[in-house]
Design brief:
Chain lengths: 329, 329
């Protein structure tokens, strides 16, 4: 049993979201709270821009919920940068207790799961779960200097510039978090750091199957089964892997990475990064939930737990997926 | 109110701990489950040695509790390496749901707080909270190549080579976790990356004061108020800062960093690192609790949330301290 059932059904009262210029040309453009014209966000470095976006998303979620900073009881956040500096430095701006988490691109559902666990238990009345990423800070840290102009292979994805936050409380909305399935670390031996989608797909399968087994639900129970950033190729792999186990998600699966970009440039398989699911969920999907265009969503943010050092030392890519069931009640 | 009170008093059933050669010459040497003669632990790299230590501590905590891997419902862990690879790669070895956390050297109390929250709420029967660090992997990542033989300034500390894990369950021991106080990020503007103790002391004060206020307790309630890795200098700063607020911890405060080393070589202010509080708590202090030599401990692991990039970009050092009250019941 990997699933925690939330008897008190903590609610997502509001979200806050922000995205970069490239991202806003796509599906999220109409729904985010702020569209950036310039991905430096008037900061000197990409790292500071990333932090400022995360800060914006957190503040906006609080504001959109009709609350003040002083009303908020907990911040659960993480990001992709070393020592999760975006989250920690954003948290420095608030007098709110802070739990830092690291789940790579699974951070959105990990932080929602922890926040919902604490709210559901009655420990706190509310909490903000937040994450984000920035293309240029991720490239600098994980890959090559942008100035080098490296060619990207066709299996690669493009780190989303954006951030999203969700304010979770014991009341105040019809959008409820009904359960969370905490993932195990799954590693199928993929070593290609440009092919995160294929590395992560088996972990998405593992958590989705565990969730369906634990809850006794069929995949068709959900209007949408949303993965984080498998990308186009990884999504196809996930569908095949689930099909092998007799689970058909052909009709209700979407991947935030696959749908986030409209432009076809260098992003190949689509978006990735902790900000990918945070922006898509925090804007487009939450809007659909609020308008009751969808009523049952399984949000499965997917994370690749590698580092440049682990890959440099010849390791394969361990992955994790956490799932949270979000339903209109 | 930053404090979560655990009505069901989740228990620390057992711990597992391991430490390096230098560490085992000190107070923990008699109490750890394994003393390493060679800090490479028969691995090719220091990163792999760090992971192997963490793996050992987790396995040992499970074994010492009389359980099997299949009995364990959750692993909450983190470490200092980029993308917390020690924790993630250790978690890969288990078929146990995993929550990755990052709180720098505050990871021990953060992971215990989260694990206890989940167990207390009845979501899971048990969980392992774990962390560790390695001197040489930390030096490589945060400071200078060892081969460079850099001189260390007198305000510096020495990253502990070691790991510790605690198995937390709803029954099975008299050592109970009665509450947890989640810290806020506190930054007093210290920019000297060699002086983490002074950077972190204000955050330790903030959380200790919040804990005492929330619980209505006097500092003298506790037999021991244990900070993580302030070191000798940082500990003195903390005592002064608390004294200014009318709180006297002169008689019952110890710092894991200050007491961990007996040898006086280059470690100056003492130990640091996520492994510092993990090893000292997991061996020496837990032994005292079990033998009822102490009965009321406030464990306050302290974390400096900087990165090489944030310091390189001119930032000061944001810090956090989480406190867990551990009492014989």
């Amino acid at each position: 049993m990997q699933t925690i059932v939330f008897e008190n059904k903590p609610k997502i009262v509001a979200t806050g979201s922000i995205a970069g210029p490239k991202e806003c040309q796509g599906v999220v453009g109409k729904f985010v709270d702020k569209t950036l014209q310039d991905d430096t966000f008037n900061e000197e470095t990409y790292e500071k821009a990333e932090r400022k976006m995360l800060l914006f998303a957190i503040e906006k979620a609080i504001e959109n919920a009709g609350l003040k900073e002083a009303d908020v009881r907990m911040l659960v956040a993480g990001d992709l940068l070393n020592q999760i500096i975006s989250a920690s430095f954003a948290a420095r701006e608030f007098a709110i207790p802070f739990l830092g988490v690291y789940g790579a691109c699974s951070t959105l559902s990990e932080s929602i799961a922890i926040a919902a666990s604490l709210v559901n238990a009655g420990y706190i009345e509310n909490a903000v779960a937040a994450t984000g990423s920035h293309f240029s800070s991720a490239e600098r840290q994980y890959r090559y200097p942008l100035e080098l102009g490296c060619t990207r292979p066709p299996q690669s994805q493009w780190t989303v510039t954006g951030a999203g936050a969700a304010l979770i409380a014991n009341a105040g909305s019809r959008v409820a978090i009904t359960s969370a399935t905490i993932g195990k670390v799954i590693d199928y031996g993929v070593t290609d750091v440009n092919n995160m989608g294929c590395a992560m797909a088996p972990s998405a399968r593992d958590t989705i199957l565990a969730h369906l087994k634990d809850t006794g639900r069929d995949a068709s129970y959900y209007d949408l089964i949303v993965t984080g950033d498998l990308g186009a190729l990884g999504s196809r792999v996930l569908k095949d892997l689930l099909w092998e186990k007799g689970v058909d998600v052909q009709g209700n699966h979407i991947d935030c990475g696959e749908i986030v970009y409209n432009v076809i440039e260098d992003e190949f398989q689509g978006g990735s990064g902790a900000g990918c699911s945070a922006v898509v969920f925090g804007s487009y999907i939450f809007d659909k939930l609020r308008k009751r265009e969808v009523n049952k969503v399984l949000l499965c943010a997917t994370g690749a737990l590698l580092s440049t050092v682990s890959s440099g030392q010849g390791e394969s890519i361990p992955c994790i997926t956490h799932a949270v069931a979000i339903e209109n009640v």
